[in-house]
Amino acid sequence: MNSTFRSDVYAVYVCLIVCNGNIVCRTFDYDSSTFNCRLFEGEVNTGSIIHSVSTSCVGAVQFSPQLFAAYNQPCYQCEQHRYLMCSNGSCLCPPHSFWDGIQCENQRYLGAPCSQFDSCRRDIGLQCSIVYNICLSKKEIPLNIELKMSKFCFSLDSTNPPPIIQWSFNGNLNDTYGVYHGISANGTVQWISPGYSGYGMAAYFANKTYCLVPHSLNLIGSSFTISTWIQLLGNAPLNSSEFGLFTHCENKTIDKCLYLTVRYGKLLSSLYISNNLTGNTFLTSYVWYHVAYVYDRVALSQSIYLNGQLDGILSPSDIFQSNASQMWIGASPYMNNYPNPFAYMDEMIIVPRVKNASELLDEATLVVYYRFDNSFVDSGPNKNQNGSGTNVQFDANGRVNQALLINSNNSFFQTSGFYFLGQWNYPYSFSLWIYPFVTNGTLIQVLSQK
Q: Which fold has domain 165-364?
């Protein structure tokens, strides 16, 4: 391989990275004769592609519905997101794209088929004809789009790492988004109910049982956050035991093997032998904890969070570079003696980005968040589905978007499933916006059922 070819490959790769870092870029080309890297909003199938002998190389970003899982969710779920942007408090499609019910698509050009009002490029005078179901213009805009290329050089597979992996542990080891399914190994993972939130289920790891995820996860050069809920049991003394949580290990060398554990009663993250970060707080048995590990590739830092609060931080001496072909949840053969969890675990989530402190605090402490924007949907991390209203209405004049209108003696909103409200020594708080019509009345009432 000569040096000219190597430099061209590197330049195309840099062009690819620049495109991937731009939320509106879907296609790019690099011309090795002029050294120009050009970015395009249009997908590679926009217009016609003419094959020709040239010095240009074209690449494109591949998209799939799971990349847009945070669509229409609160903005904290799409901070630093590659595919969605925050607008009016929600995660929405970037400019010049539209939501087709599954994912964000390019807005269409002249003559392209369309089926909804926002599917055509209205910024250049196009609109979707309800008669012909194509994008038309009153001004007869001529638009010819071509991409000349000699070969299709690169395809950026955006799904590894995917935007989110989630094991809910509701009676199975499946990934909510259908890719990273796990299987029981070294025994059978058991189940307990309720889970950390007071409903659903949680996984019970005992007798060195673990969950094997036989799917590669490429974390080379990527920031990421791993979070989960754990409850340690009293089968072994915490101050002399180790409880494995998660392992991502390409091989047993420095910075190619990550494992997260509770060692001698404290959280620990290790990039194998070196770069060990130990938390400051000693955990106790039979208490649910939210734990999170954050690796910031840009700032080159490792952080541990316990119940949404920073519990330890370290600047590693090397960059984590692992592309493991499988992962382990619970005990792991990569750790000495398969550390025996004897623990409950619930809601493990991996995202290829840095979650900020505010986001982790919400994840650890926010139980429900009702926006009352024409629905009783819980927009918080737990997705409580028990909300309902009696003799209530949604009003457009809310403090933030819409509001819930309660204007009679027998109108109310109710919800249930708050397990920790009935548990000893768990603090809680309520907050809400109100616009009172009278100066007396009940705002919140908590009832328990025996």
A: Jelly Rolls (2.60.120)
